[in-house]
Amino acid sequence: MLTPRHQALLMTLAGMTVGVAVFGTVVAVNGGNPFTAHDTPVGIVSPSPTSTPSRGDGLQADGLQYVVQNFGTDDDPVSSEVPAGWKSAQSGTRPKFVDSTGVWQIRFDTRGSKQTPDQLVANRERSIDESGLKVLSRDNGTLIYTYVDKARGPRMGLSRWVSLDDGKTSAVEITVGGRPQDEAGLRAVLQQATDTLKLPVDPNDTRPN
Asked: Which of 24, 86, 112, 150 is most exposed, with the fewest beta carbons within 10 Å of its own?
């Protein structure tokens, strides 16, 4: 016969056993570790990172990757790097590459000119017939401006004329377009295209006209 003391001890052990069993069930429900918290609360989904900026964020310079594009003619081949994913919308001596949304673009004119880059900057400024035109800069053969397009709203353009003879004539025009909030990205695209531009080295090249 168990004494009252032994009965109390057995009841205590039974309670501990039930507690361990319940604790083990909690561990199983929580994946083995009841102290591990969820990184994301239930019902909230963390956004997946993307390398392509959204249209509202602007074109991000540090998110761009580039590929080489070849254009020009068989006799006067030209190449330059443009953002990856921008598709050719026009080829030949006046190629154009546009992103999938149609918001950003870069185009080249490889026909050349006997006018200086600064003269062509002035000519382009006078020729732009757009509402709200505002010239931000016209230095070093590069024209930077904004305007308002009737269909697309505020726009920004950067046009650069590249010379191969210390500014006496112009060999290639590079123009990038987008929106005012894309300025940093557009500047990066223009600079990358300029830095990677490869032109014919034939001394008989007579493209400037």
From this structure: 150
- Summarised one tens digit per residue, pLDDT across range 130-161 is 999 999 999 999 999 999 999 999 999 999 99
CA nearest to 180, candidates 127, 150, 151, 144: 144
- Average of per-residue pLDDT across 22-28: 38
Check if the beta carbon of residue 115 is closer than 8 Å to that of residue 104: no
CA atoms within 13 Å, Cβ hemisphere of 135: 15
Rounded mean pLDDT, 157-181: 97
With beta carbons less than 8 A apart as the criterion, state whether 160 and 173 touch.
yes
Is the model's pLDDT at 41 over the cut of 60?
no
Write out the DSSP string of the chain.
---HHHHHHHHHHHHHHHHHHHHHHHHHHTTT-TTPPPSS-TT--PPPP-SSPPTTT---GGG--EEEEEEE-SSSEEEEEEETTPEEEE-TTS-EEE-TTSS-EEEEE-S-BSS-HHHHHHHHHHH---EEEEEEE--TTEEEEEEEETTTEEEEEEEEEE-SSTTSSB-EEEEEEE-GGGHHHHHHHHHHHHHT-B----TT-----
In angstroms, rounded to a whole number, what is the distance separating the alpha carbons of residues 143 and 117? 10
The answer to whether residue 202 scores a pLDDT higher than 80 is no
Residue with tokens 């998110």: 63
Residue 9, phi then psi, degrees to nearest 5: -65, -40
Report residue 27's pLDDT band, with 50, 70 and 90 as the boundaries: very low
